[in-house]
C-alpha cells in the first residue's frame, strides 16, 4: 500500500488512544505516508482533503459515512485537596450554582452550553439530572482541564480513560461515582464516495478491529 493517509484527530486522544493503532498500521504498511492533523474542532473532510476524521460526537452530515469505535464516557473528578477544602458532593444537585454549597466547576468550552452539565445514573442511564454549574474556569483543551483539576481548582467532567491513571495514583478522586457525566460515541468518519481508496477502507477496518480487541474502559 502506497500514498498518503490524511487523518484529523482530537488532541485529547491522539497520544493516549490513537498513537498505538496508527503505529501498528504503519508497521503493516511501511510504504504508506501518514499525515495527522490534531484539532478539537470538527473539520470539513472535503475542504481539508482529509481521508478519515476521528470524532467524538453524534453524526448528522449525510455526506459522510462512519464506523463506530467506542463510547467515550466522562466521569466527575477532583483533587483530594479541593474536596477536603470544599466538601464532597453527595447528589448531582450539590454541583448546581444555586445550591448553598455549590462547587467550582472546570468546564469544556466546546460543549454547548458549557455551564450546563448532565449527570446520568450509571445503573439506569435514562435517569438524568441537568445541572447549571458555577464555572470558575473553562477551556477547549481537556488536558488543561485535567491539569487544573489536579491543581485543586474545582470539579471537572473528563473521559474515564483519561482520568484513570490519576485515580490510581491518588492525584485525583472520583466524584459522584454512581453517576457519569456523558457518553458520546466515537467514530471513524470518512467521505461517502462511490469509490473509496483502499488505504481508507483498510485503516478504518483496522481501527474497528483494534478497539474491539482493546476495549476502552468506560467506568469504575
Automatic annotation (TrEMBL):
InterPro entries this protein is in? Answer: LysR-type_TF_proteobact-type, LysR_subst-bd
Where would I find the LysR substrate-binding domain in this sequence?
2-210
Q: Name one GO biological process term.
A: DNA-templated transcription
Q: What GO molecular function annotation could you give as one example from this UniProt entry?
A: sequence-specific DNA binding
One Pfam family it belongs to = LysR_substrate
Q: Which family does it belong to?
A: Belongs to the LysR transcriptional regulatory family.
Protein name according to UniProt:
Transcriptional regulator LysR family
Amino acid at each position: 500500500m502506497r500514498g498518503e493517509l490524511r487523518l484529523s484527530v482530537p488532541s485529547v486522544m491522539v497520544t493516549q488512544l490513537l498513537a498505538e493503532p496508527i503505529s501498528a498500521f504503519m508497521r503493516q504498511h511501511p510504504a504508506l505516508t501518514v499525515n495527522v492533523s490534531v484539532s478539537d474542532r470538527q473539520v470539513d473532510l472535503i475542504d481539508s482533503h482529509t481521508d478519515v476524521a476521528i470524532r467524538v460526537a453524534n453524526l448528522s452530515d449525510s455526506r459522510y459515512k462512519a464506523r463506530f469505535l467506542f463510547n467515550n464516557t466522562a466521569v466527575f473528578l477532583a483533587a483530594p485537596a479541593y474536596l477536603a477544602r470544599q466538601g464532597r458532593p453527595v447528589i448531582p444537585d450539590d454541583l448546581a450554582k444555586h445550591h448553598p454549597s455549590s462547587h467550582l466547576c472546570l468546564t469544556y468550552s466546546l460543549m454547548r452550553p458549557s455551564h450546563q452539565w448532565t449527570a446520568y445514573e450509571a445503573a439506569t442511564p435514562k435517569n438524568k439530572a441537568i445541572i447549571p454549574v458555577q464555572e470558575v474556569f473553562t477551556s477547549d483543551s481537556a488536558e488543561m482541564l485535567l491539569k487544573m483539576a489536579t491543581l485543586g481548582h474545582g470539579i471537572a467532567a473528563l473521559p474515564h480513560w483519561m482520568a484513570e491513571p490519576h485515580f490510581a495514583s491518588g492525584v485525583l478522586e472520583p466524584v459522584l461515582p454512581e453517576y457519569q457525566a456523558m457518553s458520546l460515541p466515537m467514530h471513524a468518519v470518512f467521505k461517502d464516495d462511490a469509490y473509496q481508496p483502499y488505504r481508507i477502507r483498510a485503516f478504518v477496518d483496522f481501527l474497528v478491529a483494534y478497539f474491539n480487541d482493546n476495549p476502552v474502559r468506560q467506568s469504575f
